[in-house]
Design brief:
heterodimer; A: alpha+beta; Mth169, Chain: A; 4-stranded antiparallel beta sheet; 4 strands; B: Rossmann fold; two-stranded antiparallel sheet; 21% helix
C-alpha cells in the first residue's frame, strides 16, 4: 500500500475556497485468476526483441484525478468509493489508490 | 395487437435501426428509447442493442449503466418484463448488475467479425422459447470485448440453474465455458454477444436469428 500523507505535505495540489485538494492515482489491475489478454500478448511479443527473461506481464490502467477534500483520508475514502461504483469493475478488476 | 419493443439508444449505439427493422419485419411495433429519458414508454420488451455506448470509455458499458433510461430498464426487469442485451447491450447489462459476470477483451486481442455457430442450451428464456434445446444457430458476432468471465461460484450457479442460454460451438474469443449468453435468476433478462438481428433474413447470410426475435415476441404474448 502507498504511504498516506497529510494535507500539509508539498504534494498537495492547492486550496480552492479553503478546501485543500489532493492528487489521487488509481492503479487498476486484473483480479488474480482473471485472464489478461493484453498482458499475454505483450509477453509473447517481448522475446522477439530478445527479452527472453520476462514473465508475468500485466497490462492494467492508471487513472489520475484531483479531489478537493478536508484531508487525505477523506480524499482516499471518496476515491475508493468511486472505484467501487465506476472506476473499476470489482467482478474482474482490483484497484489500488495512492493519495499524495 | 402487435407487441411493442423498446430499443434503447445511447450515444454511440449503432445497431438500434437494425433491431427496429428486424422486429418490424415480424409485425412488431418497435421504437427507439433515448438513453436520457428515464422511461421505457410502456414497451412490452426492451432491447439494448449493440454499438459503443458512451464511446465504451473506461470499460464497455461502464458509463451507460448510469444513463437515466437504465433506471426504467431495471424497473421493467424487476417487474418480470423481458430485457435483451445484444453485444454492447450485454456488456451494459453486466455493468448494471442485471446480469452476472463481465465481458473483457477477446483472448488473442483481435476484433472478431464473423458468423459463428451457437448452441441453444435452454429454452426457458424470452430469447429462446421457440428454439429447440440443442439447436445450433448461425449468427454473426462483431466484438472486441466478448470474452465472458465470472468467478467460480457464479459459474457453478449459472450451470446449476441452467442459466447459460447459448454456448459457442467453436469458442472464438476465450469465453469461460464457451458462454455466448446468460440469463438472470428470474430468466427474463438475457444477454448475448451474437447479433440475432443480423441473421434475420436469408439475404444477410442467415435467418437463424429469427427464432430468437420471434421468441421475444412470443414471450410478450404474440402468437408465433
Amino acid at each position: 500500500m502507498a504511504a498516506r500523507r497529510g494535507p500539509a505535505r508539498p504534494a498537495r495540489v492547492g486550496t480552492i475556497g479553503g478546501v485543500p485538494s489532493f492528487t489521487a492515482r488509481v492503479d487498476i489491475t486484473h483480479l488474480p485468476g482473471v485472464a489478461d489478454p493484453a498482458g499475454a500478448t505483450v509477453e509473447r511479443a517481448l522475446p522477439a526483441l530478445g527479452y527472453t527473461n520476462v514473465s508475468q506481464v500485466h497490462v492494467g490502467k492508471t487513472i489520475r484525478l484531483v479531489v478537493d477534500a478536508p484531508d487525505a483520508d477523506a480524499a482516499r475514502a471518496q476515491v475508493e468509493e468511486m472505484c467501487e461504483r465506476l472506476l473499476a469493475n470489482p467482478v474482474i478488476e482490483a484497484y489500488e489508490v495512492t493519495v499524495t | 395487437m402487435s407487441a411493442r419493443v423498446g430499443v434503447v439508444q445511447f450515444p454511440g449505439t449503432n445497431c438500434e435501426q437494425d433491431v427496429v427493422w428486424a422486429f418490424e419485419q415480424l409485425g412488431a411495433r418497435a421504437e427507439i428509447l433515448w438513453h436520457g429519458d428515464a422511461t421505457t414508454r410502456g414497451a412490452d420488451a426492451v432491447v439494448l442493442p449493440g454499438g459503443f455506448a458512451h464511446g465504451d470509455y473506461l470499460r464497455t458499458g461502464a458509463i451507460a449503466r448510469f444513463s437515466p433510461v437504465m433506471r426504467a430498464v431495471a424497473e421493467h426487469a424487476a417487474a418480470g418484463g423481458p430485457v435483451i442485451g445484444i453485444c454492447n447491450g450485454f456488456q451494459v447489462l453486466c455493468e448494471a448488475h442485471l446480469l452476472p459476470g463481465a465481458l473483457q477483451r477477446n483472448a488473442g486481442m483481435r476484433f472478431l467479425c464473423e458468423t459463428v455457430e451457437v448452441r441453444v442450451e435452454t429454452t426457458t428464456t424470452p430469447l429462446t422459447r421457440l428454439a429447440r434445446p440443442g439447436q445450433v444457430l448461425r449468427i454473426p458476432i462483431n466484438h472486441f470485448e466478448g470474452n465472458y468471465v465470472c468467478d467460480a461460484a457464479t459459474l457453478a450457479r449459472l450451470r446449476d440453474e441452467d442459466r447459460v442460454v447459448v454456448r459457442y460451438v467453436d469458442n472464438p474469443n476465450g469465453s469461460l465455458d464457451d458462454i455466448a449468453g446468460v440469463c438472470n435468476e428470474g430468466r427474463n433478462v438475457v444477454g448475448l454477444m451474437p447479433h440475432p438481428e443480423r441473421a434475420s433474413d436469408a439475404l444477410l447470410g442467415s435467418a437463424d436469428g429469427l427464432v430468437m426475435l420471434r421468441s421475444v415476441l412470443a414471450a410478450v404474448g404474440v402468437p408465433a
